[in-house]
C-alpha cells in the first residue's frame, strides 16, 4: 500500500481536489512505475496500491478512491470480479481495467458489471491519465483494438453449464472429482466436456480449455 500524497496531494496546484486513484497490479515494477508517473499529474493522487484482488477490494473500501485502476489478471480474484464487488459495496468508485491480454470475453463481462474503461498495458502514462479523467467524468472508454477483437470473436458458443464444467477441468482434475464438485454424474460431466470440445472445434478437453481461455470465454 502507498500512503503517498494522502495529506498533501489531495489538492491540485489550482486548489481543486485531485482525483483519488487506487492502483492494483500483481507486478510490482509495473505498479510502481504507474504510481510514479501518475503522481506527476497535478490533478491525480495515488492513495493506495494492491497486488492481489482481495487486497484491491480491501484497499478500495479503506481509502474510497474516485477511480480504481485494476489489472485484469490478479491473484485471488480478477479485476472484473473486484469491479463487480465494488459496484455493490462502493458504487461511487469508477473502475478502469488494464490488461496485457486482449481477451474479448473479459471485455464483454467487464462492461456487463459496469466497468467504465478497458485498456491495454501498452497505453502511455499520459494517455492513461487522460482516460482516468474521462471515465471519472462519466464517459466510457474502450481501446479500439480490444473492441475490434471482441466484435471479431463473437459470443461464446458454450452454455453456462458447459463453461462451468470446462473451468473445473482446467487444472486437469479427473472426471470423478469434477462430478463430485458439480453434483453431477460422471457420464453427465463427460457429455458436457465432449459438447464443449465439439463446439470449440477442439480435439479434447485440454485443447477446449486453451481455446476458451484465449478467446476470453473462461473466467480463470
Plain-language structure description:
This protein is an alpha/beta fold. 49% of the residues lie in helices and 14% in strands. It contains ten helices and six strands. The protein has helices at residues 28-38, 53-63, 79-89, 104-112, 125-136, 144-153, 160-169, 175-182, 186-200, 205-214, and strands at 19-24, 44-50, 67-71, 94-99, 117-120, 141-142. The protein has a six-stranded parallel beta sheet, with helices on both faces. Helix 4 links the parallel strand 4 and strand 5.
- Alpha-carbon distance between the two ends: 25 Å
CATH architecture of the largest domain: 3-Layer(aba) Sandwich
Order of helices and strands: EHEHEHEHEHEHHHHH
Q: Total helix count?
A: 10
Output the radius of gyration: 20 Å
Characterize the biggest β-sheet: 6 strands, parallel
Helix content: 40-55%
- Tell the overall outline: elongated
- Strand composition percent: 5-15%
As for the number of domains, it is 2
Class of secondary structure makeup:
alpha/beta
What average pLDDT do the residues reach?
87
Assign the CATH superfamily of the largest domain: Response regulator
**Strand arrangement, largest sheet?**
2-1-3-4-5-6
Low-confidence stretches: 1-14
The total of beta strands comes to 6
* Main CATH class of the largest domain: Alpha Beta
- CATH fold label of the largest domain: Rossmann fold
Amino acid at each position: 500500500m502507498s500512503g503517498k500524497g494522502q495529506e498533501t496531494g489531495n489538492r491540485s496546484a489550482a486548489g481543486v481536489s485531485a482525483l483519488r486513484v487506487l492502483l492494483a497490479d500483481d507486478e510490482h515494477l509495473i505498479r510502481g512505475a504507474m504510481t510514479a508517473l501518475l503522481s506527476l499529474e497535478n490533478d491525480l493522487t495515488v492513495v493506495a496500491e494492491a497486488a492481489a484482488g482481495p487486497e484491491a477490494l480491501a484497499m478500495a473500501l479503506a481509502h474510497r478512491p474516485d477511480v480504481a485502476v485494476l489489472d485484469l489478471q490478479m491473484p485471488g480474484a480478477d479485476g472484473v470480479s473486484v469491479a463487480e464487488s465494488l459496484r455493490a459495496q462502493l458504487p461511487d468508485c469508477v473502475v478502469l481495467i488494464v490488461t496485457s491480454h486482449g481477451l474479448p470475453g473479459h471485455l464483454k463481462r467487464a462492461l456487463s458489471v459496469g466497468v467504465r474503461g478497458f485498456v491495454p498495458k501498452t497505453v502511455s502514462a499520459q494517455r492513461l491519465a487522460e482516460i482516468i479523467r474521462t471515465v471519472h467524468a462519466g464517459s466510457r472508454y474502450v481501446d479500439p483494438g480490444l473492441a475490434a477483437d471482441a466484435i471479431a470473436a463473437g459470443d461464446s458458443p458454450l452454455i453456462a453449464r458447459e463453461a462451468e464444467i470446462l473451468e473445473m477441468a482446467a487444472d486437469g482434475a479427473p472426471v470423478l472429482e469434477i462430478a463430485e464438485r458439480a453434483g453431477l454424474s460422471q457420464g453427465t460431466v463427460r457429455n458436457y466436456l465432449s459438447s464443449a470440445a465439439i463446439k470449440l472445434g477442439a480435439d479434447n478437453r485440454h485443447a477446449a480449455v486453451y481455446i476458451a481461455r484465449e478467446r476470453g470465454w473462461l473466467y480463470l
